[in-house]
Amino acid sequence: MRSMTQIRILSLVLAAASIATVCASLKAQTEPAQDSSATHFKVRQVPDAPPPTPFPPGGEAPGRVAPVQFRSMDQMTEKDRELEADAESSIGERAAFLGLDFNQGKWNYQELVCPALPNHIFLRYTRDSGAGDVSLFTASIPREGDGRVRIIPIRMRGYSLFSPAPINALTISAFNHIRAEENPDKAPDWLGTGLCYAALAGGHAQAVNLTQDPESQKFPAAIPAMVQIPVIGGAIIEFSDAAANPRLMQWTMTFDRKGRLLKATHFPAGLLKVNPLPPNAAEVKGTPVPPTVKDIDLAGNAVQ
């Protein structure tokens, strides 16, 4: 009798333990799982990546940019004169291919010293046969032989070849090849690059920059040099050529993310005339005018 009672008690204990195990399992399945690492999760805000640009913003002050220098044959270094002599046959061949008649008439040249493209020597060739008969082109020679001689046609016997050199597809293509041959060890100056392109296209570019003091502006000024960085990347360079004659010329150049020139425009610039006001310009002079309109109250009577 006693053993039967013990067996019944043991059965009840086992049943209770089984029910408890099942309940615990169901509770674990119905309750949401807790992430033990949630309390250790850290949020770090990632800054927006700047748009890719071939010219670092703020890397150059336009007022301190090194301008393009024009040197006569006598002012050139001996090494540069030797480079010109070695490349003269290639220059003549490529110029003749474009119909420039390099082997006819007397041609003179001067060197364009471009700080933005130091690994090339640039020569501007001119043949002046009188009024209305002037031919002009620019030749590019790599200094270390890493590249090829290139010709940028500007004018033939007084006329533009194909289309004006500043916007010509041949000028843009040659400029992109020249920059690809440079292999610079640092990012190029944006304004120096723009001035160099203008010089290679036939200009004698000198950028206009507005001074901070209006009283020191004795001459009309155009829009100052600036670089814009689009949201999608690349760069847009703008400046006014103060040396252009008879009017200032506005240059705009659009570059892609990798620094390839996509488009160039060249047109007369609108001038900004700055006239400083005299110190007493803000003073109001004259006799006060008596009031001509009377205030009316709600009853329709004039208020004295």
**pLDDT averaged residue by residue:** 75
Strand order of the largest sheet: 1-2-3-4-5
DSSP E strands, number: 9
Radius of gyration: 39 Å
- The geometry reads as globular
Question: What features would you describe in this structure?
Answer:
The chain has 4 helices and 9 strands, in the order H-E-H-E-E-E-E-H-H-E-E-E-E. With 304 residues, it is α+β, with helices and mostly antiparallel strands. It has a domain at 62-268. It has a 5-stranded antiparallel sheet. A 4-stranded antiparallel sheet has the order 6-7-8-9, with helices on one face. The longest helix has 29 residues, at 2-30. The radius of gyration is 39 Å and the shape is globular. 27% of the residues are buried.
Provide the fold topology.
Blueprint: H1 2-30, E1 69-71, H2 78-97, E2 108-113, E3 120-128, E4 134-142, E5 150-155, H3 169-182, H4 190-200, E6 226-228, E7 235-241, E8 249-255, E9 261-268
Antiparallel strand pairs: 1-2, 2-3, 3-4, 4-5, 6-7, 7-8, 8-9
Keywords for this entry:
single chain, 304 residues, four-stranded antiparallel β-sheet, 4 helices, globular
Gist?
Helices cover 24% and strands 19% of the residues. With 304 residues, it is an alpha+beta fold.
